[in-house]
Here is the input.
Amino acid sequence: MYKEKDEHIGIYTSHTIKAIIRFLTTELKQFDITPEQWIVLKRLAANDGITQKELAVLADKDRPSITRILDILEQKELARKEKHHTDRRSFSVFITPRGIELKNQLLPFLEDVYEDRILKDITDEELEVYRRVLEKMNRNIEGV
Amino acid sequence: MYKEKDEHIGIYTSHTIKAIIRFLTTELKQFDITPEQWIVLKRLAANDGITQKELAVLADKDRPSITRILDILEQKELARKEKHHTDRRSFSVFITPRGIELKNQLLPFLEDVYEDRILKDITDEELEVYRRVLEKMNRNIEGV
DNA sequence: CTAAAATAGTTTCTATACTAACTATATACT
DNA sequence: AGTATATAGTTAGTATAGAAACTATTTTAG
Here is the structure.
């Protein structure tokens, strides 16, 4: 573990994440939603009525991505946009009843997918170290 | 660490990887290459003359992605394709002198980027656990 | 040996990220 | 007040992943 960190950490992390996203995409197909759309819906459910910009920050998306993903969520009638009352540049975004219903299904579903499948046989101690490494990497490259 | 694994593991991992890829993209800009193109060039350097299909497997890309990325590497004169001698459906892919030169620069450069910056202040013990968690997650979702 | 199936690679389509340019509106400066 | 700057959101262009359809060739089966 002392050498070739590009290979053993960088490229292997990249491989694993792609596999997880592929796995989640497959699991979520039955709900007709992608993992990225899910993150936006989840943030929206917890912060109903916020602006696109605020939603972008919370969902870790840039503004073009939020525009695109909200278009899709609107098509699927999971979210809707209203003109902001005081700032005519902005939109307020709301989750629909259908969106709430889906969120209520997906929250426990995804907890189970992680608990029982993706993270099976991984101890809490290992997960704590794993999470700490992520935090350190984030801090190391912060502001870039 | 016992609950909300979708949030604390899934979404946070996704955030971190995006930040790392953004960081690497910025670092590699001076070499006019992206992280994904780098993986392909690296595998090609270690396996000169293999077919696109073999390269796709080694670089963890699907066939359309390899087609696209090789187009770019050819444009940049880092790789070239030749018709396969015995199987006329295939191409053999070769790295160019320019590609070799770039690889010789990037291999140590990226080792340093990981060692000195991305993984700064992360112990070998932590990295071993981190890598083990990745391996377990990979095994858990294998074949999906 | 010929027809069917498999394989290598490309192209097209959808979804995503990111940059840059653009429109419309709001805020700040003088 | 009027101009300059900043902000919210959209659109367009490049790079990537993945699915599906397609072409050309090879392999397999009968």
About this structure: Strands of chain A lie at 79-83, 91-95.
